[in-house]
Amino acid sequence: MNIELVIRLLLIVGIGAGIGWVTNYVAIKMLFRPYKEINLGIFKIQGLLPKRKHEIGESLAEIIQQELVSLKDIVNSMDKTVIEDKMEKVIDDMLDQKLGSEIKKNFPMLAMFLSSDMLDKIKSIIKNSILENKDKIIEMFSQYLEENVDFKGIIVKNVDAFSLEKLEAVTYLLAKREFKHIEVIGAVLGALIGFIQFVIGLLV
């Protein structure tokens, strides 16, 4: 093989590798950019994620809700023991702060005969009455969440509000190595196509 053919081979393979690398590099960039639609007259150009951000958010919310985690799953995963403990503490705090003062305010004559032991007994009766129905209260709260909280809507809203710049930065941070591999693969395939073209040119 003479020097002219070697140079020709290197040029064709090099150009093919360059085209393959640039093509994949631009394709990766166009996942995110341009952020805003650019009207070129004949056609419009915009990054895939900016253009379909809302649709992606809806699809993501649908997948999360149906396949990964739903509001019902979250409710069912809550530790009822912890909820009961917190409920008991809230009831104690409310009764300690309010019961005595409310009785004095609304029933001043009764307050004159109300000892601390009697007040404690009243608190205990009220507290036990509430805690006896704790399961119903928790179930009512859970049912309210399931029926009234738009879990999918929250996800879509948060995706819509998510900064495209931040999304791009996070994606590159997580997939930087994989993106680089795609660029390299493009260069390798381009070089291979260039080599095949060179061989075909020799045979024709």
From TrEMBL:
GO cellular component: endomembrane system
Superkingdom of the source species: Bacteria
Transmembrane segments: 6-28, 184-203
Keyword annotations: Membrane, Transmembrane, Transmembrane helix
Major location category of this protein: membrane
Cellular location(s): Endomembrane system
Family to which the UniProt record says this protein belongs: Belongs to the UPF0754 family.
Name of the featured protein: DUF445 family protein
